[in-house]
Amino acid sequence: MLAGVAVLTAVLLAFHRAVPNSVGRLGSLLEAFLPWLGLVAVVLLGLALLRRSATALVALLLPVAAWTYLFGGLLLPGEPESDLLVAQHNVSDENTGPAGTARALADAGPDLIALEELVPTALPVYEKTLAPEYPYHAVRGTVGLWSKHPLSGVRLVDIKPPRITDDWRRGLRAVARTPRGEVAAYVVHLPSVRVGASGLASSWRDESAGRLGEAIAAEQRKRVILMGDLNGTVEDRGLAPLTSRMNVAERGFAFSFPAGFPVARIDQVMARSATVAHIRTLPATGSDHLPVAARITLG
């Protein structure tokens, strides 16, 4: 029995893409929590030792090997040298302390700060608090970018799914003139997903990711940094239009949601013609998300 569960866990880790998405998007649901299958191996190890089952112990090598192949690199120690430090944070439209949130982000010292869920009442607070250290900023709809370096070419990125009829502006693009050259910076907030009796409801998120992937593919700047609340993990096939075109973090788990007990990183930093060398969470703010900070090495 234990050996069978170990083999099944290994199969799910190694062949998660084979789990179909046709019914309830079960494949995406599995991939959202894929790293946590490592806990299954830990539990099985305890039971195998308790029962002194040599067969189960040998079978456990399969999920351990699969998990290590997928996620072991994220555990490597240290923060590599980098050219840019960027911060990404969904600040929450219910955040009652925007000034404190802004100061906490600035204290981390990033070159770029990407914010989502900016509401009209809080926006002036973010602008005033961040202005001394971040003289350049751009806001489109509910997303914004603050920078230590000059910005140009600011425009709205239309990632709205066709079935959303409301005023919905959740994407912007700007060019940051950094000491290492120009970088196209995208700040986005993809639609939320819901887990219910019928599975994972993510169709709007997936449609928005597809539109964003097309925009990034058409981007003429060689170097691109994407920051945003993508409402999905990098293992989730729903984000394939992005992960197939961009590099994801090489080190760090940085689970960011929910802030009280983070179980997944849905706040992402990705890059093209650059490397996301390391990602980590920052201390909690007044949001239901944790901020993340990523070190970028430009190619």
UniProtKB/TrEMBL annotation:
<feature type="transmembrane region" description="Helical">
    <location>
        <begin position="57"/>
        <end position="76"/>
    </location>
</feature>
<dbReference type="InterPro" id="IPR005135">
    <property type="entry name" value="Endo/exonuclease/phosphatase"/>
</dbReference>
<keyword id="KW-0540">Nuclease</keyword>
<feature type="domain" description="Endonuclease/exonuclease/phosphatase">
    <location>
        <begin position="88"/>
        <end position="289"/>
    </location>
</feature>
<keyword id="KW-0378">Hydrolase</keyword>
<dbReference type="InterPro" id="IPR036691">
    <property type="entry name" value="Endo/exonu/phosph_ase_sf"/>
</dbReference>
<keyword id="KW-0255">Endonuclease</keyword>
<keyword id="KW-0472">Membrane</keyword>
<keyword id="KW-1133">Transmembrane helix</keyword>
<protein>
    <submittedName>
        <fullName>Endonuclease</fullName>
    </submittedName>
</protein>
<dbReference type="GO" id="GO:0004519">
    <property type="term" value="F:endonuclease activity"/>
</dbReference>
<feature type="transmembrane region" description="Helical">
    <location>
        <begin position="33"/>
        <end position="50"/>
    </location>
</feature>
<keyword id="KW-0812">Transmembrane</keyword>
<dbReference type="Pfam" id="PF03372">
    <property type="entry name" value="Exo_endo_phos"/>
</dbReference>
